[in-house]
Amino acid sequence: MNSARERVREEVMYRIAYTSSGWDIVRMGPEAFFRLCNMLERDGGLKPTRFSSVEEQVAKALYILSHKTKNRVVKFWFRRSGETVSRHFHNVLKAIIELEDKFFLQPDGSSVPTEIDGNNKFYPYFKDCVGAIDGTHIRAKVRMVDAPRYRGRKDFPTQNVLAACTFDLKFTYVLVGWEGTASDSRIIKDASSREDCLKIPQGKYYLVDAGFMLTSGLITPYRGVRYHLKEYSGRNPPQNYKELFNLLLDFGATYFF
Q1: Which residue range or ranges hold the DUF8040 domain (predicted)?
Q2: CA dist., res. 231 & res. 216, Å (int)
Q3: Which of the two ends of the chain, N or C, has the fewest CB atoms closer than 10 A to its terminal CB?
């Protein structure tokens, strides 16, 4: 029985590690998969167990994350107990968190982003812009007594997760934990005052939408004025400087993000 289970696991791991099926199973090719495994083991502290390699643990975690699948599905495909799947999943998540300082690098504003510099559509208008910030609602499982505070725009509880991104589509700051009813302005205020705070270089700014307040370091569109690109389509060009500003602001954010 054990040998049969091992053969199934070996077949799954072979498809991930040595065939194009890896893209379907874990959403990445073999080279990227092994690089990630090596990094999590070397820098994240992920260790092989007596019966499971680092590669198998990472494969299970990626399968769950990329397919939003249940524990029991992974339990079936990898022929492991539900407890083992859950433990390995959290081991991988902890290792990923250990890589935070390696990947979440906030811009220092010392140079104009290459995506802006030399592009006459955006330079010099966005030469001091270091990226964009927005909130996104992620489904959350909370106690029933807390559910009303987390049920904002959705019919189910969510966290309003704040994220900052640069022009090359790299996340530089993420703040999780705020309930779904919390406003973007309230969350950005918290992000700016924490010990591990969002840092905006002097004289630089992020693009944000109308859900945020206009402050030093955050550029918002004019309120009560057309903002989204689709509102300017066809024969509806900007009619004044406020509409032109909003168009450029949304165009810049949409073009890159």
Answers
A1: 24-97
A2: 28
A3: N
CA distance 180 to 202: 31
SS3 content of the chain, % helix, strand, coil (to 5): 45, 10, 45
Has this prediction a pTM greater than 0.90? no
**Which amino acid would we find at residue 244?**
L
Token pair 């004019």 is found at 222
Q: What is the pLDDT of residues 37-74, one digit of tens each?
A: 999 999 999 999 999 999 999 999 999 999 988 899 99
One-letter amino acid of 132 = A
Here the tokens at position 246 are 């909003």
Dist CA 117 CA 127 (whole Å): 7
Shortest CA distance to 100 belongs to which of 35, 174, 37, 162? 174
